[in-house]
Design goal:
By secondary structure, the protein is α/β, with parallel strands linked by helices. It folds into two domains: about 5-190, no CATH class; about 200-440 and about 450-605, 3-Layer(aba) Sandwich (Alkaline Phosphatase, subunit A), CATH 3.40.720.10. The protein is about 45% helix and about 15% strand. The protein has helices at about 5-30, 35-55, 60-85, 90-95, 105-110, 120-130, 140-160, 165-175, 175-190, 200-205, 250-255, 275-285, 305-310, 330-340, 360-380, 415-440, 465-475, 480-485, 510-515, 580-600; strands at about 225-235, 245, 250, 260-270, 315-320, 340-345, 355, 360, 380-385, 445-450, 485-490, 500, 505, 535-540, 550, 555, 565-570, 575. Strand 15 (about 550) and strand 16 (about 555) form a beta hairpin. The termini are far apart. Keywords: Cell membrane, Membrane, Transmembrane, Transmembrane helix.
Length: about 600
Amino acid sequence: MKKTDGLPYVLIFLFLLIKVSVFRVLIFDTKSILHIALIEFPMWAFLLSVVLLLAKKKLWLAVWIFNLLTSVIFFVVTLYIRYYSTIPSYYDLQQLNQSSSVSGTITMLSTPWDFLFFLDAVLLLFLVRRWKQPVKPAAMKYVAVSMAAICTVTVVYALQQPIIDVSYFAKENGFLQSQVVQLYNRSTETAHASSSKLSAKELEELKGNEFVKVSEQESFGVAEGRNLFVIQVESLQNFVIGRTLNGQEITPNLNKLLTESAYFSNVFQQVGAGTTSDAEWMTNTGLYPQGMIPTANSLSGKEAPSLARTLKEQGYGSATYHADDVTFWNRDVLYPVLGYEEIFSIDDLPDIKNVGFGPADEVLFDFAANELPRQLETYERIYANIVTVTSHTPFEMPESMQHLNLPSEYQDMYIGNYLQSIRYADEQIGVFIQELKDQGIYDESLIAIFGDHSGMHGTLVTEEDQLLLGDFLGHDYSLKDQYTIPLIFTGGNLFEEKEMTRLAGQTDIMPTLLALLGVEHEEPMMGHNLFQYKKNLLGMRYYLPGGSYIQSEQFYKAPGAKLPEVLYDLKTMEERSKNSEAKKHIKDTETLMNYADLLLKDYIEE
């Protein structure tokens, strides 16, 4: 065989090496060529060598398809990490069939440079013209064996390492190796495995509180016998509450409602890859989500001891409303697991005023309001869970639904679009609250309103947006601003105007609601009654690196794919030196999350 016969194969591997190197630099800011050569590249090279060995007459087609698939993976991972600030798992990449609902976001995330991942597909065409059917070198099988040997070592090593944060794990052990380990852990159920259970007393002590039985808590039963309305607002962040832009209130209706509400202003999102559906899971179970895998997509179908089921024992009928396809995020599985008696989705709502996913929030609220008279005749009391959707990324609203007169610098900016969409959502909440009053239901109800997760995050928030946010807030847009959501409890003659700044999370919503309603829940929950306890400890697995925590005085961001660990003072968000107290919280958070996984395990598909 001539020396030149092996040249096309050298070029094929060279193209792959360049592409893998660019991927590593872009995603992990990798500087070590040795790390790329010994950790990241060998597994990709092994897969390519297998393709080359198996391919016969259609060798170039096989190579082209392989390169196209790797390009698609690199492209998708790049966009994913820009939006979610974390590496997707193999499971997330399986969910691309659901991407049509967020196609606008994908378009906004990509840049022309990203399509250079597909450049080798063009270059391969030139190789085809030069070598139509290259001679397959005998050394190819030795390349495959060598790469396999290196991969075996790196995978075995990776399997011995704990996955605290997937992105950091992938940086240290290789992207493909991280997927193999996750798949292995999922199949053997060893990820975050722990058999340690915590009593309710031990859980509160871990958070820094003295345990008090639910029935003995001061706020127990203050809303006993009332209807319950839970309004989960898409992308509603806390920083918009009470703020104005050129004299215009962003949330005038919520601001007005605060005069007769208990408002928790230091509540952090805890969602995982399932985002909105994870928020629904936490609100209705008091349990943590999975993190890197959408919880709704992993449910076995086993009935969970939920808010709806517990309230059913008290004579409540339950209904959930969402203007989207019920199969999105497997809600057709999630909702029966949560025990809703009535489920309303896009198929049930009038097909009018469509914005983004489906009918606008005003259609959703109007539909829910019209169902109430029938439901209140059918059931002793009603629990209604309403999930809004119009204020979803990319926040582009028809002019007729824009209530703000934006300054010129906010026009066509992401932050400008966001504020418009939140102002619209606020308007519809105000209309619904008034409808409850008009129907005579408001004074007989407990109402909870909260945001599901952040909207202003990821690379969609440009430098220009950051500057506008800083001007709007009066300070730099911090991680605390990004991940805090408002939580408002209201209802006729229930609360006086009061803002509470104690730390809270979304797992605290269900136990707080049940305590207010005077209902005890026998099954364990990760959250607690916010009116009772002052201290808290929240674990984070998504948007922030795994191992991150938020404690009543501290905010700890664990090391990630690119950035080192940072400890902040929670109140000021100023950096602090890591101390013994922080080390204790890191250990306590690991215990907390292990227990969370143990509770979740019963409802996850094996």
